[in-house]
Amino acid sequence: MKTVLILGAGRSSSALISYLLNEATRQEWRVMVGDLSVQAAAERLEGSPVGRALRFDAGEERASREAIAQADVVISLLPAMLHPVIARYCLQEGKHLLTASYISPEMKALHPEALGKGLLFLNECGLDPGIDHMSAMQVIDRIKVNGGELTSFESFTGGVIAPDTDIDNPWRYKFTWNPRNVVMAGQSTARYLHDGQYKYIPYQQLFKRITAVHVPGYGAYEGYANRDSLGYRETYGLEGVRTLLRGTLRKEGFCSAWDVLVQLGCCDDTYVMHGVEDLTHRAFIDAFLESDAGVSVEEKLMRRFALAPQGAELTRLQWSGLLEEQPVGLATGTPAQILEHILSKKWALHPADKDFIVMWHRFGYTQGGVKRTIQASLVATGEDSVRTAMAKTVGLPLAIAARLLLEGKIAARGVLIPIAPEFYNPILAELSTLGITLAEEEA
């Protein structure tokens, strides 16, 4: 009996586990879910007779290896820093490993050993990274096969909230992923290529230098640059391209309001603030403004950032509760930790909330001396706060890859990402049957 071991029963695991339980029932496989909380693992299995919940702690080597030894394929949804640990256990036990995380240098260094043992360590097979790679490479390879030459590639992906969710929310955003990652986003200088020039955006400018994106049928969005776009020239085979930019997508208006928090220093995680137990939301914001007892916090913000009294930025800050006299509710914390805690009070998904995934690519190329452009977009909507679009788009590519591997339909081995047709064609084809499809427009 073939067995899949899924490590981690968090918010991104629901669609993955559901898919594999269905396959296990159909193909007489077994699904094991390991988590620090056996109860959380059991809840994800929903009493399935082909499932088994177990406690899993990556720091306990013997027990971890015993669990991994029972599996044919291991899927890790654990924090990315633990993937190299799991990978070494998989090498010792001779098991395949799949993750949705970026390949780290430690993981990449395992390629020769994985290849030598005939193992596949597939990484970046989720949403972003994952579906973005696969959908981009499918179009890029098609352009090349048809004799086109790529001149530019831009790609943005984001998780926001569905148009009919929390309609009074001016940010059009809630935490659909790790809140800390949202607060800490972009704190390294972004690097990209524009019209043959290397460009750099320091953190202080990141949310000012944005790209306007129109998604057909869904309106105006804006993208800010990811940390490093340049590494994808070689990955995507775009060595001759003159523009290359990858980034994160948000609804129009998000970035200018978020930039106020960045410029204030609210996203700083390098020091602990004093007197946190006595802070209110309003006092937290005021702590970063000039001292002037006769001027309100709103007036200070308007003066410092040239904001309009009823403007979009101030409206968003007020809606988030950042200017209320409500206790923060923490005993200690860095500015970033305090901001995350405050925002979580308004930005947490409610049970009936639906999240929304938006992905957008733009390919510039020449064919027969004619300049052409392809714009492609993908959207996905969650069902509720558990069966989220984020869980679907992160988990389903991993689940499909695991099924293909167990069925002997993937021959590639070593430490890889899914940029070859062997991966992207069957995975994207099945995602399309599940309602996750890239729509293209050519000009």
Automatic annotation (TrEMBL):
InterPro entries: AASS, NAD(P)-bd_dom_sf, Sacchrp_dh-like_C, Sacchrp_dh_NADP-bd. The keyword Oxidoreductase applies. Keywords: Oxidoreductase. Gene3D superfamilies: Dihydrodipicolinate Reductase, domain 2, Domain 3, Saccharopine reductase, NAD(P)-binding Rossmann-like Domain. Transmembrane segments: none annotated. It comes from the Bacteria. GO terms for biological process: lysine biosynthetic process via aminoadipic acid. Residues 4-118 form the Saccharopine dehydrogenase NADP binding domain. GO terms for molecular function: saccharopine dehydrogenase activity. SUPFAM superfamilies: Glyceraldehyde-3-phosphate dehydrogenase-like, C-terminal domain, NAD(P)-binding Rossmann-fold domains. GO terms for cellular component: cytoplasm. Residues 126-435 form the Saccharopine dehydrogenase-like C-terminal domain. PANTHER family: ALPHA-AMINOADIPIC SEMIALDEHYDE SYNTHASE, MITOCHONDRIAL, SACCHAROPINE DEHYDROGENASE. This is Saccharopine dehydrogenase NADP-binding domain-containing protein.
